[in-house]
Specification:
Elements: E1 5-9, H1 13-24, E2 30-34, H2 38-47, E3 51-53, H3 56-60, E4 65-68, H4 75-82, E5 91-94, H5 100-106, E6 115-117, E7 119-121, E8 142-145, H6 153-165, E9 169-172, H7 175-207, H8 210-213, H9 217-226, H10 230-239, H11 241-263, H12 267-286
Parallel strand pairs: 1-2, 1-4, 2-3, 4-5, 5-6, 8-9
Antiparallel strand pairs: 7-8
The structure holds NADP nicotinamide-adenine-dinucleotide phosphate.
């Protein structure tokens, strides 16, 4: 590990997982952390995955890697507060789920002599907070770096090395392309889950909670996604509007095609469609991105 002191700004699921993964490696690296609320600082302190500070200034002082682990909408303000206290030669990176917006916001706030490497680990759960983290979160998962033409190649290589040491496989990508791809694979599925659970919630009032009591695996999978952190998801949609609307437009068109096939009782169309989607699931399993066990290996 080529870094000596990592500073985590934000102490939730992603920050605590980074710290636990570093410690799992037996690394001697110094890890400091900051969270805006006393309560989260107290909880992080109790777990003991890093040295917790009450100010951003003390947290980043002397750090050679600073990782922004706050919601996308809070990155810019956090960066502004940290900027005056960064050491020359330090590298700033982030874990935000959208990239083009973050690059626009963070680049102008980076002081002279400091580099910024935008990054997004494609790993997470529906749980938040410091207790939600675990050391193996990034094992075998992708971490996408979206350096621009201004990004230092040296800093990019160091951040790449950092994520590989946490178990991730690193890929570089253009930021706009990242935002479109993630809209398909993550953002739109979450929005559909939020919508479906919202529909069920309204329906629940009519069926006197039957949708909850008799919830089948399909609906339970939606509820898992729909339980994700509301602030994180608010910020993702507000700050990746164009890509989200593009994918939702395509989703709506597909939904109408399926709706029409159902109305026409076009079984052949539906079967072919579902065979194609089943194939995609197979490809994800073959790529090692999910388990092949029924019901994701859950007991019930
Ligand atoms: P989390 O568990 O909810 O933790 C959020 C942290 O950010 C907490 O320390 C919280 O501080 C702080 N925070 C919240 N609002 C803030 C604000 N307005 N100003 C300053 N600090 C604020 O979040 P997470 O899941 O680790 O996500 C962190 C980042 O990782 C996000 O940018 C997200 O897009 C990205 N990401 C998440 C996932 C995922 O599945 N969760 C996956 C990949 C990337 P307090 O608790 O003190 O309020």
């Amino acid at each position: 590990m080529s870094f000596k002191h990592v500073a985590l700004l934000g102490l939730g699921l992603i920050a605590s997982s980074i710290s636990l993964a570093l410690k799992r490696n037996g690394s001697e690296i110094k890890i400091t952390g900051f969270s805006r609320s006393k309560e989260t600082r107290h909880r992080a302190n109790k777990i003991g995955f890093c040295e917790v500070f009450e100010s951003i200034k003390d947290c980043v002082s002397g750090a050679d890697l600073i990782i922004l682990c706050v919601p996308v909408g809070a990155m810019a303000d956090t960066m502004s507060v940290a900027a005056p206290y960064l050491s020359k030669g330090a590298i700033v990176t982030d874990v935000g789920s959208v990239k083009a917006h973050i690059i626009r916001e963070i680049n102008p706030r980076i002081p002279k002599g400091v580099s910024f490497v935008p990054a997004h680990p494609i790993a997470g759960t529906e749980n938040s907070g410091p207790e939600a983290g675990f050391a193996s979160l990034f094992d075998g998962r992708w971490c996408i770096l979206t350096p621009t033409s201004e990004t230092s190649i040296y800093a990019t290589l160091k951040v790449k090395d950092f994520w590989q040491s946490l178990g991730a496989t690193v890929q570089e990508m253009d930021a706009d392309h990242h935002d479109l791809v993630l809209s398909v694979t993550s953002h739109a599925p979450h929005l559909i889950a939020f919508t479906m659970v919202g529909v069920a919630d309204e329906f629940a009032q009519v069926t006197k909670s039957e949708v909850i009591n008799y919830s089948a695996a399909g609906f339970r999978d939606f509820t898992r996604l729909a339980a994700s952190d509301p602030i994180m998801w608010r910020d993702i949609f507000v700050n990746n509007k164009d890509a989200a609307l593009e994918i939702l437009g395509r989703f709506t068109e597909e939904l109408f095609r399926l709706q029409s096939a159902i109305r026409r009782k076009d079984g052949e169309f539906l079967q072919k469609y579902f065979e194609r989607t089943r194939e995609l699931r197979r490809n994800i399993i073959e790529a090692g991105q999910d388990t092949s066990e029924p019901n994701f290996g859950r007991k019930s």
